Amino acid sequence: MKNDIDSLLDSMFRGGRLHFKSSVPPDEKAEQAPVLSQAEVHTQDAQKALDAVENAGDSLSASLRESIDRLTQEARADMADLERHLRQDGIDTTARSHNAGAPVDLEMAFQVARQEAGALVLGQEEFLDSLLIAFKRPFVAGSKDDTPLCKAVVSGPRGTGRHSALRCVTASLGRQGILKSPKTALLDLSRYGAAGSEKLFIQDFYAALKSGAAALVLENWEKCHTAVLSMVAALFREGAIPLPSRYAEQKGMLVEIGTALVPGAVSSLSAGGKYLFLVTDRPASKLVDTFGAPFLAALDDQCQTKPFTRQALEEIARRELEDLVERCGKQLQITLAFEEEAVRALADSFTLEQGAYALKSGVDRLYRALSEEKLQKSLAPVEGKLFVEQGALRAEYTQAGITVKVGEKDPSSAREAAVAAVKEELAQIVGLQPVKDYILSLEDNFKIQQLRRERGLKADSPSMHMIFTGNPGTGKTTVARIVSRYLKAIGVLAGGQLVEVTRGDLVGQYVGHTAPLTQKAIQSALGGVLFIDEAYSLYRGKDDSFGLEAIDTLVKGMEDHRNDLIVILAGYSREMEEFLTANSGLRSRFPNIIEFPDYTAQELLAITQNIVHSKGYRMDAACEAPLLSYYEQQQAAGDPRTNGNGRMARNKVEEAVIACSRRNVRAPEEQRDLELLLPSDFGF
To answer: Which of 265, 324, 381, 493 has the fewest CB atoms inside 10 Å of its own CB, making it the most exposed?
Structure first.
């Protein structure tokens, strides 16, 4: 027995290293098993050897068993290492089907993938050919285990099928067994636009690597923070992301460990065995400006879509309509037919900004309208057709001899209603006509820039950050709230919320506290308006380090979120002018300084009447003359910061309401009027 064990160990361990040797003759192996990769052969041989060692070890002495256990553990460690390399592989170099074990014809598999992508993405033949070359490249040129299989940029106008083609080719090759997985992992780099986003990006990239996806797709690089951008550049140049500190995997997560001694610590994340794609609508010159020439030199392929031809658009429109007909028949029991006029009308809805998605969006809206018709009227199976009315796609069906027309629900109608409501609210504000004119002009500029984008022209996005200057009570906060809703209604802002803060919300009480506070306020206002009242209080001189830190953080946040945030500062005119000197970047970022004038006596009277009405009271006509005289006297004699504003009118109404209540309590029941305010109630 001892000699048998010695022979077995000698055959496994030579020169202090573990070796594997198959016991099946080469000819017999070829007949008994499918073609295996070298790593898989090693794995099977290792398992056989371990089984033999464990079986033989049943009758051994304790000391020999201990030695064999130790050697067995080392063998298992080598096996685990082999299996890890297999899992990290993004490609099956033997091109063997994972399902049946039979060899796959590479050329045939790529032809199938090309046909499937061509059926999905129309009018982009050259782009699809170049994309298939990128996927085929590692099979022809080979690749190393620790490097990406291919690094490519996929560029072209939005809505031209870039993402669809990537997902389709990856899924097809994965399904046929050419790639280890049919999955694609998408990383939206716009999520990492704030300072300090590097850790979040590292965790998300690690999750994408662990997801088993064969292709990693990164997009919106122009919206990510510069620190993340440098990581992306290194990923495409070197095939790995350098980590700012040491990390280790713990319970399936990547954890920062600093200088701690932990087994398996890593200082970089490799994309070895993965396809890497950067999707963009920017030209190559912009990539060079941002990433540098070494970035482009490191790329294996550049695949670019082209604008759609009219023929391609009509083919896409026809396919969308056919899909609509199929969905309506299957899901709604509404049988539809269409003619070429409907195809042309749908193709006309294409815009350069939305791309082919505009066609799909129009069809989806019509489907939702038909679904609502089915729900509301409990339609039995009916027949109908698609037709064009005033350039728009419509549907009609006949039931019980009555023809019913159904149109897509245009979201612009709801948007127009929201805009009209905000304009009406703005019109109700007394005075401030120059301010109103400026606010309403924002819509005109936004519409023109949107029209330019739809026509493929360069569209400017001017800064909409504003400074409201004027005395307290002149309507700055009220107008800021309306502005936030107005900008959301016209489509400038996604959220439209107004976050009101002061110095106390932005400036911390100790070192290191201010920047996080300011960043928190900025994050809460993303998609809306950040309104800073008495903004000049942030700057109390050059020795106010905390206030200056808040201003610096604010300026940087405005730059990082230029498309997702509008900042409105408010304060006295003279103090705000001094405030703009606190940071060299402030004045250039606030080109719109809007002066709120003090109200006239006549405007204060109108404000008083509005407040009285809003409180459910009415004012006796005899109150108007003394109120007007009172406001004129106050403005002439008092401080304009307190006596020329709406707060004075509100305070006056509050006094009158209290006096009215006191008067009615003492009056007989038949003489009480709980809604009428008399001159005596105002103190006249």
So the answer is: 381
Tokens representing 361 are 């969006």
Structure tokens at 579: 């405030």
Alpha helices in 176-283 (DSSP H): 198-210, 226-238
Task: Name the DSSP letter for residue 335.
Answer: E
Q: Is 588 helix (H, G, I), strand (E, B) or coil?
A: helix
pLDDT at 218 over 80: yes
Nearest of 652, 663, 647 to residue 626 by alpha carbon: 652
pLDDT in tens, 16-31: 444 444 434 444 333 3
Whole-number pLDDT of residue 67: 59
| Total H helices, total E strands in the chain | 26, 21
Q: Among the listed ranges 10-14, 266-270, 411-415, which one has the minimum average pLDDT value?
A: 10-14
The CA distance from 630 to 621, in Å, is: 15
* C-alpha 646: how far from chain center: 41
What does the angle CA 576 – CA 582 – CA 587 come to, to the nearest 5 degrees? 65
Residue type for position 60:
L
545-550: long-range contacts, CB 8 A cutoff, minimum separation 24: 546/507, 546/508, 546/514, 547/503, 547/507, 547/582, 548/582, 548/583, 549/507, 549/514, 549/515, 549/518, 550/503, 550/506, 550/507, 550/514, 550/515, 550/517, 550/518
What is the per-residue pLDDT across 280-300, written as a single tens digit (0 to 9) for each?
Answer: 988 877 888 888 888 888 899
Task: Give the angle 359-356-416 at the CA atoms, nearest 5°.
Answer: 55
DSSP per-residue string spanning 357-375: HHHHHHHHHHHHHHHHHHH
Bridge partners, 452 (sequence order): none
Phi–psi pair at 512, nearest 5 degrees: 90, 0
Paired sense of beta strands 184-188 and 215-219, if any: parallel
How far is the C-alpha of 36 from the C-alpha of 26, rounded, in Å? 13
- Reading phi first (left if > 0) and then psi (alpha if -120 to 50, else beta), residue 265 is in beta
Other Cβ atoms closer than 10 A to 449: 17
In 3D space, the residue among 624, 605, 611, 607 whose CA is nearest the CA of residue 657 turns out to be 611
Query: Which pair of tokens denotes residue 373?
Result: 């018709």
Average pLDDT, rounded, for the chain: 77
Q: Pick 216 or 637 by higher pLDDT.
A: 216
Whole-number CA gyration radius for the chain: 36
Residue type, 322: E
Burial, 495: exposed, middle or buried (Cβ in 10 Å; 0-12, 13-18, 19+)? middle
Token pair of 233 as six digits: 């550049």
SS3 state at 460: coil
Q: Output the CA–CA distances (angstroms, integers) from residue 417 to 392, 445, 483, in the order listed.
A: 20, 19, 16
Amino acid symbol at 563: N
The pair of structure tokens assigned to 497 is: 């919320």
Q: Is the pTM of this model over 0.70?
A: no
10-24, 65-79, 559-573, range with greatest mean pLDDT: 559-573
What is the CB neighbour count within 10 angstroms for residue 255?
13
| Other beta carbons within 10 Å of 597 | 15
In a 13 Å sphere around the CA of 555, the CA atoms on its Cβ side amount to 18
What's the rounded Cα separation, in Å, for the pair 442 and 485? Answer: 13
% of the chain with per-residue pLDDT over 70: 79
What CA–CA distance (Å, rounded) separates 89 from 179? 9
Quote the crossing angle between the two packed helices 198-210 and 226-238, to the nearest 10°.
40
If you count them, how many residues does the chain have? 684
- Tokens 């029991």 sit on residue: 333
Query: d(Cα 593, Cα 605) in Å, to the nearest integer?
Result: 28
For residue 670, with 0-12 CB atoms within 10 Å meaning exposed, 13-18 middle and 19 or more buried, which class applies?
exposed
